Amino acid sequence: MRSNDSARATASAATSSTTVRFVDTNVLLYAVSRDPEEQDKAARANDILTARDVALSVQVLQEFYVQATRASRPDPLTHEQAARLVESFLRFPVLDITTDLMLAAAATCRRFGVSYWDAAILEAARSLGCDVVLSEDLSDGQDYAGVRVENPFRTH
Q1: Fold that domain 4-150 belongs to in CATH
Q2: Are 80 and 147 in contact (CB under 8 A)?
Q3: 21, β-bridge pairs
Q4: How far apart are CA 124 and CA 95, in angstroms?
Q5: Measured between alpha carbons, how far is 82 from 88 in angstroms, rounded to an integer?
Q6: For the packed helices 58-68 and 116-127, what is the interaxial angle rounded to 10 degrees?
Q7: Secondary structure class of 144 (helix, strand, coil)
Q8: Residue ranges of the alpha helices (H) in the chain?
Q9: What is the pLDDT of residues 72-129, one digit of tens each?
Q10: What pLDDT shows up at residue 155?
Q11: What pLDDT, on the 0 to 100 scale, is given for residue 18?
Q12: Would you list the domain boundaries of the chain?
């Protein structure tokens, strides 16, 4: 596992030439979806991941594993498939969960009235120096004290 300093340094190096965007769990889930109704979103998600200007947190990887292997999912992955994908996502900067992150998320939760889990996503992005979170779950266009949400799957 990477340390926070290592992840931050990797993100900082990436931001020197481009803006690094934080990716929420739904982007990873769409990237592996085999549902015919989600193929446009799957293609967009894979484009995002191919661009490599993204960062993640351990929370995102945990949520991905749990949701991707859920038996009630229309196209569940095996443990082995999901674990290999999590390992492949380590090519991106990944922020560890720390008590500092947890406390910052609790404050963001209270300040903006979002769930703790959404606040943890926002604070992980902030910790990595990302000013954009790509998420279908948070309010598109909303700015949370310098971290803006973009829904990469919205139709114009």
Answers
A1: Rossmann fold (3.40.50)
A2: no
A3: 54
A4: 7
A5: 10
A6: 130
A7: strand
A8: 4-15, 25-31, 39-51, 58-68, 79-89, 99-112, 116-127
A9: 998 899 999 999 999 999 999 999 999 999 999 999 999 999 999 999 999 999 999 9
A10: 80
A11: 63
A12: 4-150
